[in-house]
Specification:
This protein folds into two domains: 30 residues; 129 residues, no CATH class. Helix content is 15%, strand content 40%. The protein is built from one helix and ten strands. The strands form two sheets. The chain has a six-stranded mixed β-sheet with strand order 1-2-3-4-5-9, with no helix packed on it. A hairpin with a 7-residue loop joins strand 2 and strand 3. The termini are far apart.
């Protein structure tokens, strides 16, 4: 009797193992991707997806002294930075109205935004979000990237996409 129970358990474990292997083989695979962010007292550094197909990222630095974001995309085929970006946050946030001492937080995420009419270059899937505590504003920025094969030196301005307020403010 004990031998028969053992054989049945072994059979069920074997069937479960085979079924698990089949399910894992047939289940669609998605690569794990992470967006990174690091902060110091006077600047923040973060990445944002530049290409939806092959995991290429842009690296950006937000300078808390100049209130600017600057970034670049590293082309893996050339092992060089081939696209450069900038944005002066004084255009979008009332820095003078808050006494010139804004408190920024920044992060990036996936937006998969559609191209605007007339755009020649594909909009990158990454969106950069900048929040300012005193004004209570969050602004989203988009950028574009394409592999051209030529090292570009011209800086492209990050495009303002949308804004919302997370806090009521007198500004």
């Amino acid at each position: 009797m004990t031998n028969r129970i053992f054989n049945q358990c072994t059979a069920w474990v074997g069937i479960g193992l085979v079924a698990g292997i089949l399910i894992c083989t047939l289940w669609p695979h998605e690569p794990a991707q992470a967006i990174t962010n690091s902060r110091a007292d006077k600047f923040e550094m973060f990445t944002a997806p530049a290409s939806a197909l092959n995991g290429i990222e842009g690296v950006f630095v937000m300078d808390h002294l100049t209130f600017q974001i600057r970034g670049a995309v590293l082309d893996p085929q050339q092992a060089q930075f081939t696209a450069f970006y900038f944005r002066d946050l004084k255009q979008d946030f009332p820095i003078d109205a808050i006494g010139g001492k804004p408190e920024f937080a920044v992060l990036s995420g996936r937006g998969q935004l559609q191209n605007r009419p007339g755009m020649r270059v594909q909009t990158a899937p990454g969106v950069i979000y900048v929040a300012e505590l005193n004004s209570g504003m969050v602004v989203g920025y988009a950028f574009s990237w394409e592999r051209t094969g030529v090292r570009g030196t011209a800086r492209q301005e990050l495009g303002k996409v949308a804004m919302f307020r997370f806090r009521d403010s007198d500004l």
